[in-house]
């Protein structure tokens, strides 16, 4: 039986390349105009090899775009106070425009306390309470990068959101909750599902836009998807498997993100874009992309 | 035809009286233990008679409970900077434990900037970005008072929330959005509806728990309600009319809040309760009610 894929793929690799190219152009312009290159500080606590790889990847992308990076590595044995202190120094340092604390921190470190030491103006990874609330209310601030990347993908493929049913499966502070708030800010009717949701397939079948953000391999099956839906798979599980059973889902969806090559590449692209935006704001320069959104509350 | 009301009423007046009695007892205990009575600062900008009445009512309730109040009245012609300055002084004043800025401020005043001048530890009305995000993530902080009051009502009537469908109609920063986050934190599957939602009745009919928080008189009809649902009417429109058509809804619901006498009285009760809690924390005393919640993110 031949595989009849009907969905169009949402190409995150291509879109991320565009966003990165713009970030690189903006970086050049900013550096020429001010004599200062944007600078992203990365903070890595402990020696998890996966986390080290992610940080390295982000630094490499920065270098390619002309963004400087500054790295702070702390041993796994460090106290919360020491990490807070290090992040606080970066927040106060005028040469640093953006701060990324690689998640997850070792269990003994209070990650929330560390995040809150990031000045919201430098929170280019969108992890502070301030950023989350600003995102929720449509105020100026930085989106969590993966949710921000998902919105970029939806916009690039001209997905209509206003008045449509969006279902978000997952409710983590850096993915499920913020992406739901961003969709709500764009006038979608938003449902949050999670591990305690009863009859999940019945709810996902109502979704015009379905976001899987739960981190459970192939949890969502093709039969759970409304024909013609837009499917965003933000899961990234071992073996390059998403949260959606791709083959069966692609036969029902109109648009779908592949894993890898869908949401994943957008995360770093948004991180770099927001770093340039942060530098632009801190250096007092006006670029077109610096406008804040506004939201309906009715 | 006789009116056959099947729903039990959720008596907010009675529950609020209990919460206020506890707040008064805690205030007495705290005052005896520390020599300091809790103090709520109220800030009123402009001369809207409705707002003045609300503030007066809050002050009277404080006085009855033994909570001191301090009032700051500013003319409608004041600048945002002047209000921010006044609120900043209250934030810095160790004699003030809670701050309430009466909503709405005159249009020329940037209400968000004023709210952000409130120290989150004194944000007993739950209006800062910090409070909203903390509420969303189940961290220690103060709930917006009406959402907090709604949760109190649901708990008092032992409404099961985990795994149940909750629908919130409305998405304002101080009502719809936070109440949805509190319900999500209690493991309900939460849907946000609003003015752009298509086929609202179809969605409200899926709700085990329906929260009307939209400010449109009798928008939600009895036929829109799932038989046996719990209906929370947070609307308060001219003529003592809620957002729900009460008579027809009461014939379908299992539990329903009346208007007035349902959600309304809970708002002030939670405000006072949170003022006492804020004072307790700031004075370094441990009371049983000061525990923070924790949330699932899966």
Automatic annotation (TrEMBL), chains A, B:
It comes from Actinospica durhamensis. Pathway: One-carbon metabolism; tetrahydrofolate interconversion. PANTHER family: C-1-TETRAHYDROFOLATE SYNTHASE, CYTOPLASMIC, C-1-TETRAHYDROFOLATE SYNTHASE, CYTOPLASMIC-RELATED. GO terms for cellular component: cytosol. This is Bifunctional protein FolD. GO terms for biological process: L-histidine biosynthetic process; methionine biosynthetic process; purine nucleotide biosynthetic process; tetrahydrofolate interconversion. Keywords: Amino-acid biosynthesis, Histidine biosynthesis, Hydrolase, Methionine biosynthesis, Multifunctional enzyme, NADP, One-carbon metabolism, Oxidoreductase, Purine biosynthesis. Catalyzes the oxidation of 5,10-methylenetetrahydrofolate to 5,10-methenyltetrahydrofolate and then the hydrolysis of 5,10-methenyltetrahydrofolate to 10-formyltetrahydrofolate. InterPro entries: Aminoacid_DH-like_N_sf, NAD(P)-bd_dom_sf, THF_DH/CycHdrlase, THF_DH/CycHdrlase_cat_dom, THF_DH/CycHdrlase_CS, THF_DH/CycHdrlase_NAD-bd_dom. Residues 10-125 form the Tetrahydrofolate dehydrogenase/cyclohydrolase catalytic domain. GO terms for molecular function: methenyltetrahydrofolate cyclohydrolase activity; methylenetetrahydrofolate dehydrogenase (NADP+) activity. Belongs to the tetrahydrofolate dehydrogenase/cyclohydrolase family. It comes from the Bacteria.
């Amino acid at each position: 039986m031949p595989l009849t894929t009907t969905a169009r793929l949402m190409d995150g690799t291509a879109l991320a390349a565009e966003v990165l190219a713009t970030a690189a152009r903006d970086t050049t312009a900013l550096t020429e105009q001010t004599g200062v290159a944007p600078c992203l500080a990365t903070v890595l606590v402990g020696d998890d090899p996966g986390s080290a790889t992610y940080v390295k990847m982000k630094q490499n992308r920065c270098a390619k775009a002309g963004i400087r990076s500054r790295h702070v590595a702390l041993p796994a044995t460090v106290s919360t106070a020491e990490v807070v202190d290090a992040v606080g120094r970066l927040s106060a340092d005028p040469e640093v425009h953006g701060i990324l604390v690689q998640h997850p921190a070792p269990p003994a470190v209070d990650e929330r306390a560390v995040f809150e030491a990031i000045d919201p103006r430098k929170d280019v990874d969108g992890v502070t309470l301030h950023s989350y609330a600003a995102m929720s209310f449509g105020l100026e601030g930085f989106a969590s990068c993966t949710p921000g990347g998902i919105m970029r993908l939806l916009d690039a493929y001209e997905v209509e959101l206003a008045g449509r049913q969006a279902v978000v499966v997952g409710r983590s502070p850096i993915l499920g909750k913020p992406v739901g708030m961003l969709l709500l800010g764009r006038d979608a009717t938003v449902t949050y599902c999670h591990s305690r949701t009863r009859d999940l397939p019945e709810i996902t079948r109502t979704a015009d836009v379905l976001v899987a953000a739960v981190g459970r391999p192939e949890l969502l099956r093709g039969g759970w998807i409304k024909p013609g839906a837009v499917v965003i798979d933000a899961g990234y599980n071992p073996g390059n498997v998403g949260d959606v059973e791709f083959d069966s889902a692609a036969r029902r969806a109109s648009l779908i993100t592949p894993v890898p090559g869908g949401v994943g590449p957008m995360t770093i692209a948004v991180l770099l874009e927001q770093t340039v935006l942060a530098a632009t704001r801190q250096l007092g320069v006006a670029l077109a992309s610096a406008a804040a959104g506004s939201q309906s509350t009715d």
